[in-house]
Structures are given as C-alpha cells and as structure tokens.
Write a structure and sequence with these properties.
- By secondary structure, the chain is mainly alpha-helical.
- Helix content is about 65%, strand content about 5%.
- The chain contains seven helices and three strands.
- Strands 2-1-3 form a three-stranded antiparallel sheet.
- The two termini are about 20 Å apart.
- About 10% of the residues have low confidence.
- Pathway: Protein modification; protein ubiquitination.
- Keywords: Repeat, TPR repeat, Transferase, Ubl conjugation pathway.
- This is E3 ubiquitin-protein ligase CHIP.
Length: about 230
C-alpha cells in the first residue's frame, strides 16, 4: 500500500523500493494469496515512468554533446584546411619570384618535403568525414539501451510470451512464469506444457539464475517494463 501511495504522489524512486520489497515477499506465496502479477504491474508503471523521464534527459544531453563535437570537428577541419593552404601558397610564390635561381633548389625540395607533412585538402576532408561517421556510431551505441526492441526470447515465458516476473523451472529444464504454470497444472492437467512429461507443483522450483538475468536486462533496458 505504501508503494502505491508513493506512486500516486509521483515519488517514483521510493515507490520502486517499496514495490520491489512487496514483490520479493509475494514471490513463492501460496496460490490463494499470490499477488505477484498485481504488484509487478504497479512496479512496472513506476519503473517505466522513471526510465522515461531519465531517457528524455539522456537524449537531450547526448544531442547537445553530439552537436558540440560536430562543431569542434568542423572547426578543426577548417583550421587544417587553412593551414594547408598557407603552407603551400608561399612555396609556389617563392618559386615564381626566384625563377631560375639554382642555389635555391634545396629550399624547393625542402618546401615540398614540408608540404607532404600536412595532408592535402582531400585527405583532410576525408578524415573529417571519417570522424563524423565514428562520432555517429559512438552516439548511436550510447543511445541503444534507450531504444525499445524485442525482448530476447529466453527472458520470456513460453506460455505468456511476456518477460518473466517470477520464473520457475521444471525437472525437464523448462522455465515458466510461476502463476501461469500453476494455473495450467490446476486447470489443464499435471504435465509440463512443453515436454508433456508428468509434473506437479511440488516439483517446481524458483529459477534464480533466470531471475537475475531478467533483472540485469531490465536495469539496462527500462523500456522493457512497459506492459501496455
């Protein structure tokens, strides 16, 4: 109840803490008092809203930083092009002014050598576009966790097709959502839904490894809490 009250007052961080505690207490409860799905729905709302607000801030910050980097790259490119033009222009002018003066052949060679130290305009422009492409890739990767995609199949129940809330594993090695599996055993029959082997509720145990994997995924992909 405290978690719901905090959620209503938009205190999402505290609401998440209280709802997570309630979820842990609810997992493994008796069928008659099982409320994991209800708690999960409220927790998902809080988590999703918390992620959504954070994602908007991150998107704006990344956009501003990307624009700054692009501007600095452009300024650097223009500076390099200017330097390249300045370094090459005097050599051509001096050759014209002293045309036929043999003793400056060494200087002419030296001028050519210096010119080769600076990339030609084409190389500078090419490098600039390569840097822009790399920058785009970096920011694209940075924003990837906030872009919704399909949740990996191994993190979803084979019956509900939703991400696990309270995963349990059967002796056959198949993982299901606890509430869904227990309902199957009560209403359909005492057998594993996938392997069809005999199964009773006392043989079902929590899949802690899957629980940790799901939580790790949700921590990095808050959009996956969306349930509507």
């Amino acid at each position: 109840m405290l978690g719901l009250a905090l959620l209503q007052s938009q205190q999402y961080r505290e609401a998440v803490k209280q709802l997570e505690k309630a979820l842990e207490l609810g997992r493994g409860g008796k069928p008659g008092t099982y409320m994991v799905e209800e708690i999960w729905q409220e927790l998902a709302k809080a988590r999703y809203t918390e992620w959504e607000q954070g994602a908007l801030v991150r998107k704006r910050q990344q956009k501003d930083l990307k624009e700054l980097c692009e501007r600095l790259l452009k300024e650097d490119c223009e500076r390099r092009l200017t330097i390249a033009d300045v370094n090459t222009a005097p050599v051509k002018q001096s050759l014209v002014e002293i045309d036929g003066v043999i003793q400056l052949d060494d200087d002419e060679f030296s001028g050519d050598e210096n010119k080769s130290d600076d990339p030609p305009n084409e190389e500078i422009t090419k490098l600039y576009h390569q840097h822009l492409e790399t920058l785009t890739q970096v920011f694209d990767k940075a924003g990837a966790p906030d872009r919704p995609v399909e949740v990996p199949d191994h993190l979803c129940c084979k019956i509900t097709m939703d991400i696990f809330r309270d995963p349990v594993i059967t002796p056959s090695g198949v993982t299901y959502e606890r509430a869904t599996l227990l309902e199957h055993l009560r209403k359909v029959g005492k057998f594993d839904p996938v392997t069809r082997t005999p199964l009773s509720s006392d043989l079902v145990v929590p899949n802690l490894a899957m629980k940790e994997a799901v939580q790790a995924y949700l921590d990095d992909h808050g959009w996956a809490y969306r349930t509507y």
